[in-house]
Amino acid sequence: MSETIQWNDWEAFCSVVEQGTFTAAAAALDCPKSRVSAAVIRLETAIGAKLLERTTRRMRLTDAGGAVYRDVAPLFARLREIRQETLAREERVQGMLRIATPYEFGAQQLGGVICRTLAAHPALDITVEIAQGLVDPIREGYDIAFVTVDTDLPDSGTIARRIWNVERGLVAAPSLAASLPAQIQPEDLSNMPTLATPGASVWEFSRDGRRIPVPIRPRMQTYNAELRMQAALAGLGIARVPMTAAETEIAQGRLVRVMPDYPLPPLRVFALLPDRRLQPRKVRAFMEAIESMMGAELDALGQ
After folding, report:
1. What distance, in Å, lies between the first and last C-alpha atoms of the chain?
2. Which terms in the Gene Ontology molecular function aspect does this entry carry (predicted)?
């Protein structure tokens, strides 16, 4: 039973004709000379005709070989053209970039990156969708999905790049802060009104190398940091928020920090990318823009 012809057998034959020798064809295809020779033999066996006349001095196409080359060579030439055209398109930042991001991170950190990327690449369009919690960019069709977590990410088929640490703190209205114990401790929060994210039942603090988990019973739970701050401004509880979101209110004296000597673990931001290997130019351009604009705050461990 004869061997099945493979696509690269045709390419090997065309390369031998174009390069003039089996040795040169093997070099052009970056494969052993024996593989090129075997490919031509398979073709000749399958076609039932000699394609090349070979002597120690020269090689020439037979009539059958010439006919095959005239039919097949243009196809591989066009494939090479398509490859070059594809590479050229990939070098241009264009198309639609789909991004998923939590609301606060998108508004506070990504906004500037998105605007600058659009300005720098007129052929690029960006769609930003608000998504909370873990997002699967492969299943949901995103080019990049940003997620914020307290702990490590679970293993998945995506590549996760840790790009940002968001400092968090506790804030309260001055009226509520004045009613707190003078030497407030983390454990005191168990009996105080708090404003947290959904599902939060424990806040963790650290001091002197110790981890201090404290159970809480939130009066309000929402992923929206602005809403938590509104409730804090109204004196309804102690809110855990990103410090970038609260710095203006603190500077104006409308909010005060609570227990600044007990640091909270930072909120970690990861970029989830569908492919661990080749990434579209539009994705690489956006990630490069993030690194450029946020370089001072990038987490070196994630790079």
Report:
1. 54
2. DNA-binding transcription factor activity; sequence-specific DNA binding
Residue from 272, 301, 269 nearest 159 by CA:
272
Q: Give, for 72, the enclosing helix (H) or strand (E).
A: helix 63-91
Instruction: Return d(Cα 142, Cα 288) in angstroms, integer.
Output: 18
| Of residues 64, 52, 43, the one with CA closest to residue 22 | 52
Residue 64 CB-density burial (10 A; 0-12 exposed, 13-18 middle, 19+ buried): middle
Confirm if 169 and 241 have CB atoms less than 8 A apart: yes
Where in the chain are the domains?
7-91, 95-166+267-301, 168-258
The answer to whether the CB of 146 falls within 8 A of the CB of 133 is no
Q: Which CATH number fits domain 95-166+267-301: 3.40.50.80, 3.30.530.20, 3.10.20.30, 3.40.190.10?
A: 3.40.190.10
| pLDDT tens for the 303 residues of the chain, in order | 346 778 888 989 998 998 888 888 899 888 999 999 999 999 999 888 999 988 767 788 999 989 999 999 888 888 877 877 676 666 678 889 999 998 878 877 888 899 999 999 999 999 999 887 777 787 788 899 898 887 666 666 567 788 788 889 999 999 999 999 888 999 999 989 999 988 889 999 888 778 889 999 999 999 888 899 999 999 999 999 988 889 999 999 999 999 998 888 888 888 888 865 667 888 988 998 888 876 645 443 344
Tell me whether domains 95-166+267-301 and 168-258 share a fold. yes
Q: Class of 168-258 per CATH?
A: alpha beta
Residue 146 phi/psi, 5-degree rounding, is -95, 135
